[in-house]
Amino acid sequence: MTKHSISFIAAALLSSSAFAAEVPAVFDAKNCKAEYPKASLLNEEQGAVSMAFLVSPGGEVVDSKVEKSSGYKNLDKAAVKAISACKFKPGTKDGAVAQTWTKVDYVWKL
Question: What is the pTM of this model?
Answer without folding.
Answer: 0.79
